[in-house]
Amino acid sequence: MADTLEDTRLDLDTLLDTPWTTIVWNDPVNLMSYVSHVFREYFGMTRERAEQLMLQVHHDGRTVVVSGSREDMERHVEAMHDYGLWATVGKADA
Amino acid sequence: MSPFQPAADGHVTAQFGALEGEIIADLANQVADLLDENVTLPDDSLLASIGIGGGDAAPADPAVARLLPDAYREDAEASRDFRRLTEHSLALRKVANARAVELALRTGGTDPIDLDPAATRAWLRTFTDIRLVIASRLGIETDEDRGLHDTDEQLMLREVYDWLGMLQETLVGALDA
Questions:
Q1: What was the ipTM of the complex prediction?
Q2: Pick from B122, B176, B123: which is nearest to B10 by CA?
Q3: pLDDT digit string, tens, across residues A33-55
Q4: pLDDT, tens digit, for every residue of B138-161?
Q5: Residue B111 backbone zone (phi > 0: left; psi -120 to 50: alpha; other: beta)
Q6: Which residue segment(s) compose the domain that B146 sits in?
Q7: I want to staple B147 with a disulfide (CB 3.0 to 4.6 A). Which of A80, B119, B138, B153 is the partner?
């Protein structure tokens, strides 16, 4: 029983947690067409959305591409590193 | 004509001249070796068998560190935890991609090479990884950087870097066609 209560509290902590983010950073190496391709292929974005985010990365130096649980963001960041993009996990309020 | 042509069912046909294919195969081999030599292998064979393992800090070689970057910008502890879980498998995937490209070029020679969707994913990633390593070696850090250009080797590397970028552009184009 104690285990069950403990599990429930952990779940609530997760739900109340500040959302985490996946941030993609600009770098001089990755081509704009490739970054857009990655956003479409991996995140399933429309061409328009992928282009918009890619341009934000290019002009602003970085952009948040998605937010959610820390576990999911770490999975996305690892996938971005797999593609060769420079990505980090961030906090939504930071 | 572009060396990458769209084919049926999401496939792409690649074809290179002997020298071009040799250059790409050689660079892919170098990237695979670089990762092999610079990534900490897990000492626990059970964890290693399921691909878990990694170093405590970013690799000392800046080119390798760019291939396997920190996952947190201002949290060294979280970056270390992430690296310990993921670095080894990420490096292994990058090595496997590069070896696949090298093998396809060495066995295919100057004949047309059929790339299925999994193969094109490996090729795109390997072009990226090769360019990341060259950029690191040449000190290309911003969009405006020309990079080191004092020696013939540096000038040639820059040409190869730009050429690979053009190739990647055509491969993305063939996929999105």
A1: 0.93
A2: B176
A3: 999 999 999 999 999 999 999 99
A4: 999 888 888 999 999 999 999 999
A5: beta
A6: 4-176
A7: B138
Place of tokens 């068998």: B49
Q: Does A70 map to a domain?
A: yes
Query: CATH no. for residue A55?
Result: 3.30.1390.10
Residue A9 lies in a domain: no
Nearest Cα of chain B lies from the Cα of A82 at a distance, in angstroms, of 7
Nearest to B66 by CA among B150, B129, B144, B146: B129
Q: Which residues form the domain of A32?
A: 18-91
Window B:86-105, CB contacts with A under 8 Å: 86, 90, 93-94
Nearest to B30 by CA among B132, B88, B94, B98: B98
Count the domains in chain B: 1
**CA neighbor of B127 nearest in space, from A13, A31, A72, A23:** A31
Query: In this structure, are residues B56 and A48 in contact, taking their beta carbons and an 8 Å threshold?
Result: no
What part of A 30-49 touches B (C-beta under 8 Å)? Answer: 30-31, 33-34, 37
Establish if A12 belongs to a structural domain. Answer: no
In three-state secondary structure terms, A26 is coil
Number of structural domains in chain A: 1
| Whole-angstrom distance, CA of residue B60 vs CA of residue B78 | 19
